[in-house]
Amino acid sequence: MLARDGSMFHNMFTLPSDDTSHNETSDQNPLVLQDEVKPLRALLWILYALPGDIASAALDTGYNNIDRLAHCLEMANKYHFVSIETWAYSTLSSVLQTLISKQEEDESEEGIFPIANIQRISHICVKTSSPKSSLFTQVQKVWSRSVLLATTLEQIATVLIALDDFDNTFKIPRGLAYYQILTVWSESWRNSSFLDREQKIRLLAGYHNLSRTRSEAELRKQLSAFEHSSECGVGRPRCIAAWDSLTQLLVLDPELRRSMFPVQPESETFDYMTKLRVVCAAAALLVQEEVEAENMRCEEMHTRCRKRALKHTQRLLHDAEGSLMDRFEV
């Protein structure tokens, strides 16, 4: 079984040897693997798993199964089980994606992924995947979700400490963690014992750098810079005016923003991320028709243009998240 799939064990048991007392092929001279128990059990499980077990593992979003899949990936990569590595990689990516979607849709689902589990998966991801891979993307999303769902400074500090161990490998959630602390816990982070001196210096640098970026006028200009649908035709001026009216309302009205995202008032001068999130949320509601366009001052905006505005705002938010950690570099 170990010799399958072109693994590094492939020729180990077939090489001729005159001295059978030291060739690691008998009970008296076993092959010893220097691995921990859980990863080794995961490897043995996937080697002997029945088709039904494999199918079930692809649907199970429980943390124990995710851990096992991660260990399967780790061991398959280490010992060159090519087909197992391919399966474990795609299955783990899919299961993480499903888990995130379930948690976003169902508020009863447990929100924050256990830190020890995500750290373990992240280390395996770093060893087996490239930063542009689908697995890496899903792991980043798990980190980001843990950041956004943190409800106390202690909780988000725990996530940040774990992320700091990876330096900028997971740059987006790390920057997001610093940003959340700066905006949501702006009144308490300076005296917090949960953050160390280096983290507080980064937060001060972030406060200074963010205070000098993106005026409200500049942000509104960026939000308006999307390509309208050709179908809005002669009504384009009204379409543009409707979107501009909505973004002006959302960008300039702090009370409305605070009703959607918890942000401290003193963070208003630089909190462009929350402004982008609010516009994204409002545009999504319009596209999904979960709110009357008239109530959002967008009755004159063409349906296709609403979708384009949403995609454009999502791109702006993604780009902002990608460069966020740069603001906290000392």
Could you describe the 3D structure shown?
Among the domains are: 88 residues, no CATH class; 112 residues, no CATH class. Helices cover 60% and strands 0% of the residues. It is built from 14 helices and no strands. Helix 13 runs antiparallel to helix 14. The longest helix has 24 residues.
From the N-terminal CA to the C-terminal CA, the straight-line distance is: 53 Å
Kindly state the mean pLDDT as a whole number? 82
Number of strands: 0
Cα shape: globular
Discrete helix count: 14
Largest sheet at a glance? none
The secondary structure category is mainly alpha
Percentage of residues assigned to helices: 55-70%
Chain oligomer state: single chain
Radius of gyration: 25 Å
H/E element sequence: HHHHHHHHHHHHHH
Relative strand content: under 5%
Low-confidence stretches: none
Give the gist of this structure.
Helix content is about 60%, strand content about 0%. It is mainly alpha-helical.
Record the SSE blueprint.
Layout (H helix, E strand, L loop, with lengths): L36 H12 L2 H7 L5 H17 L2 H24 L9 H14 L5 H15 L4 H12 L6 H14 L12 H14 L5 H9 L11 H17 L1 H7 L11 H16 L15 H21 L7
Protein name: BTB domain-containing protein
Organism: Panaeolus cyanescens
Tags for this model:
globular, 330 residues, mainly alpha
